[in-house]
């Protein structure tokens, strides 16, 4: 067994991934896979908790998201990519953890509260939605992950997981070795915060039309860049412009590797004399350079869905073996071993 | 496949079974197994929902309850006896059903409300306890059981199951056959109501010391019968006595097969002149006759725990095959099939 630290990460497959995912997680995963043992979960079961009325979307996007992973350089030889619903041990583990968490505790979870508000569930909260932090605790602990890359807003989920881990370990030990079975985890919060949408809104979403998908065509990228929100007060080229809140610069900061050139652009724009169109031209060049190989590779991979499924099958088998081992230990600790 | 109607029944293995179980369910199961395909579940996973602090009790009593089953005449060739926790498909099914039930609906369940009150959970309700009707729905539907023997107080659980079934069937169909997958179920309420404790209390429990276990020794039976609550106003033999609420007669009604003799005893007792000691002597004879062969067979079976485990293993394998088939259909209907 590998002695590298273990990461669990993943996505809810409800749509193709976009630049926000690239900056917030995908780019990091390409690095992490060398330093860590990385499990990447296609969280289809979790996606169903609020998509029971659109299950086809979830099914379809499992393949789409897998294509995005491979296209950006996640290597299935280094990272274990798996489909959550095909590892039933995760639901089994969640089932037992439900006994270790009170309803009141789940109702107090700030992330869940916020998500409930966003979805306008009000009193009609599906039970599976209220309990999803327990399901996440199962996902994390099944792999004994010590690191989970999340945004600041997801930290309460990590706390909930560790509460379950501590409670379980206090109450139950391995029946033979008397060792603790579960492992506490840590949030790995990326330095770069969330990328805003091209319209400047904090939330990126397909329905808002403010995202650039990783598989976007050259033409789609070009059109999207034209719509990028800049400084609405920067009316004439010679006027001094604002860089702060100017999404063209936010995106250059995120994607342009020539930091000196970006700094110079910012200075020029601030003192006046640099046209939005010039900034956007640079941004488009940077994005096309980033996205062209991704798009090409994605299109090639999409030709052979059988190969993608084969990779997912292999990753899922590996993941299932690890989760089953943890589940066996948990069941032994709970006295649920008879045969 | 058998075309007999399917029953799911079972017990939470938290203690040895007693005469209350015999009258309320075990006796019926011995008959049912000829007319129906009967699955009998040792609900260890469900027992944990409020016994996470005493898991050894649950583990130990799986074998004890299995011994009770076999001793009363449940035939593992006719009935499929299985251990809930060893059929992980049940937790998996419950996980998806959680998305089809709201938290508010669970909180309104009268059976759960009453159980919460009895356990003094107040605000500290384990999430696994609130959601156990969903887990029961999974148990019932995994076997496509059309009949579930329950007391009147459990009818809300059957209603909850059918709500899930109807919602699931309305939303999802088998992707190939386009047929409905889940089957509605019916409560099978036994004609004879709940047997009271020997002290006359409605609730029988080991902690109240008002039960007679199926494995009780002859001496224990004898002592218990002496404690049976009769008519506190029947002070002198020649006084008229009351039969109503007189547990000696309640038990004779339940266990004495000579109904004419019991009727005559009741008449005699009511007009006066029949001593409590005579009634109890008859009751003891009836109970010893019932329990002696059960006790003997139980003791014999207890000699060979390996054999019991082997039976449970076989039953569990059979049950798992059926549950896995249902789970496959459910997953296909939910689009959670990829490979």
UniProtKB/TrEMBL annotation, chains A, B:
Gene Ontology terms for molecular function: ATP binding; tryptophan-tRNA ligase activity
GO biological process: tryptophanyl-tRNA aminoacylation
InterPro entries hit by this protein: aa-tRNA-synth_I_CS (IPR001412), aa-tRNA-synth_Ic (IPR002305), Rossmann-like_a/b/a_fold (IPR014729), Trp-tRNA-ligase (IPR002306), Trp-tRNA_synthetase (IPR050203)
Catalytic activity: tRNA(Trp) + L-tryptophan + ATP = L-tryptophyl-tRNA(Trp) + AMP + diphosphate + H(+)
GO cellular component, one term: cytosol
The keyword Ion transport is assigned to this record: no
Pfam families for the chain: tRNA-synt_1b
Keyword Protein biosynthesis on entry: yes
EC numbers for this chain: 6.1.1.2
Organism of origin: Methylobacillus flagellatus (strain ATCC 51484 / DSM 6875 / VKM B-1610 / KT)
Keyword set, alphabetical order: Aminoacyl-tRNA synthetase, ATP-binding, Ligase, Nucleotide-binding, Protein biosynthesis
Family in the record: Belongs to the class-I aminoacyl-tRNA synthetase family.
PROSITE patterns named among the record's database cross-references: AA_TRNA_LIGASE_I
Record protein name field: Tryptophan--tRNA ligase
Gene3D superfamilies given in the database record: HUPs, Tyrosyl-Transfer RNA Synthetase
């Amino acid at each position: 067994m590998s002695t590298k630290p273990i990461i669990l990460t993943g996505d809810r497959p409800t749509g193709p991934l976009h630049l926000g995912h690239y900056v917030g997680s995908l780019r990091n995963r390409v690095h992490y896979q060398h330093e860590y043992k990385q499990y990447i979960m296609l969280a289809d079961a979790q996606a169903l908790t609020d998509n029971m009325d659109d299950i086809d979307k979830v099914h379809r996007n499992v393949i789409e998201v897998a294509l995005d992973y491979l296209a950006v350089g996640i290597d299935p030889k280094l990272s274990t990519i798996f489909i959550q619903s095909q590892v039933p041990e995760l639901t089994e583990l969640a089932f037992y953890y439900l006994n270790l968490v009170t309803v009141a505790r789940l109702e107090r979870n700030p992330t869940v509260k916020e998500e409930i508000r966003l979805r306008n569930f009000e009193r009609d909260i599906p039970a599976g939605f209220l309990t999803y932090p327990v399901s996440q605790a199962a996902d994390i602990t099944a792999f004994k992950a010590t690191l989970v890359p999340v945004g600041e807003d997801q930290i309460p989920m990590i706390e909930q997981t560790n509460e379950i881990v501590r409670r379980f370990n206090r109450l139950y030990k391995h029946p033979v070795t008397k060792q603790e079975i579960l492992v506490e985890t840590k949030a790995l919060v990326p330095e770069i915060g969330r990328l805003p949408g091209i319209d400047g809104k904090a939330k990126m979403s397909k329905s808002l039309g403010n995202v650039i998908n990783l598989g976007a065509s050259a033409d789609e990228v070009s059109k999207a860049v034209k719509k990028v929100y800049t400084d609405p007060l920067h009316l004439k080229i010679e006027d001094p412009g604002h860089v702060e809140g100017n999404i063209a610069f936010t995106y250059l900061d995120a994607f342009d590797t020539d930091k000196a050139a970006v700094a110079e652009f910012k200075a020029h724009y601030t003192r006046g004399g640099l046209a939005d169109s010039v900034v956007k031209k640079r941004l488009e060049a940077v994005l096309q350079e980033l996205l062209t190989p991704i798009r090409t590779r994605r299109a090639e991979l999409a030709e052979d869905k059988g190969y993608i499924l084969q990779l997912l099958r292999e990753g899922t088998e590996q993941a299932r073996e690890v989760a089953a081992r943890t589940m066996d230990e948990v069941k032994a600790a709970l006295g649920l071993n008879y045969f």
